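Input/output pair, single chain:
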Amino acid sequence: MSKDVVEAAAVAAHPQTTGSPADAGDAGYSKDLKARHVNMIAIGGAIGTGLLLGAGGRLHDAGPALALAYLVCGVFAFFVVRALGELVLYRPSSGSFVSYAREFLGEKGAYVAGWMYFLNWSTTGIADITAIALYTHYWSMFTSIPQWVLALIALAVVLAVNLISVKIFGEMEFWFAIVKVATIVGFMAIGIFLLATQHKVGGSTPGLDVISQHGGLFPHGVLPVVLVMQGVIFAYAALELVGVAAGETAEPQKVVPRAVNSIMWRVGLFYVGSVVLLALLLPSSIYKSGESPFVTVLSQIGIPAAGDVMNLVVLTAAMSSLNSGLYSTGRILRSMAMAGSAPKFTARMNRSQVPYGGILLTCGVCVLGVGLNYLMPAQAFEIVLEIASLGIISTWVIIMLCHMIFVRRAKQGLVTRPKFQLKGSPVTEIVTIVFLLFCLGMMWNDPEVGRKTLLLIPLIAVALIVGWFGVRRRVAQKADQELGELTK
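Output:
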């Protein structure tokens, strides 16, 4: 049974929902996420270890022009979230882009979108629990505890929080985001003070001379700035959580536009502003991979315990990411299970209206990460991080494809666009997709990890094809059932 036939039947049976078919996976959720939760989920998605920790190594490699890379990538990330926001206002769904892919790309599109997103968050979850264990080892009292034990404890804590209720998840993300925002704002206040007073930082007087006397904006040329964009894009991963969270808020029409619009200035302030300050305070060559650039600056001016405080903040960011991954994949897998393209048990919900089946499946993959930490503690983080980037880039490409088809149908009079829109369609979507694929291609220039990751794409494609043949009969049966219910 084709998707078009099902949608036609839905329109015939429920003309008031023309162009906006319901998603069976949306039933049963509470609406306990408040505006402050969704706003902070948006902030939490925009601020993570990519800035708090990863910016140091990128500044060293690309120089002060890293700020331009963050700005360019931030603009395209905003396009993606704006497109998703428009789709959310058209039809809020906890299945988010998977639900929209089902509507605009068919069941095969939803299947690919869902499982690639699962690949993203399950591997990101492994990276997160690895990072948590590494950050915890920073303190001497934990060094005697094996890395895999700390990873398992972190996973158990976040799993418990996710299974209790969506309100607890929202509160946890709210406070995680508060910690991250307070840290960035505090650092920026210190940085501005150092600039204004011309207080020396590590022997250098802050200002434009720090940049001009150490190679300018591009100390190593333009190529390193281009190459670093793949990592910068991954730093913005999780912005799409706004779309998933909208399915569990009572007033998405009010909450989502505010959250999406605020992302752009937050990106400009927190990412671009922070990197500009870092470049003005110290030569980019001073920063290094594996150390927070904020710790580098604060230690140069003699602030005590800077490393301890920043390590705690980065630990918080990793916990936040793990928390978000379990939350989002639980909802996405339930949407897929209700359509037949994910295991039946991932559709199950507990008394607190939490889709525990999907959460447990993601958690199960993360347990494999605990094993990876046991076998290869030194390489575990890098191995899974690059694989996760495949998932997030494919997810964003699918969101833009869905939006492009949505706009095309709106021009045909089949659906109605909300007032909150992504402008410039289809050029905006096409340019964004080309840019994302370009960033993916840039991974080939990293022979150690990136190139090997790209070589996994054919294997992932074969796995998806084999999996589709395994579920297509159940998907067809679900479609037939839906059609039968609609035509009664």
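Residues 1-19 have pLDDT under 50 and may be disordered. The two ends are 17 Å apart (CA to CA).
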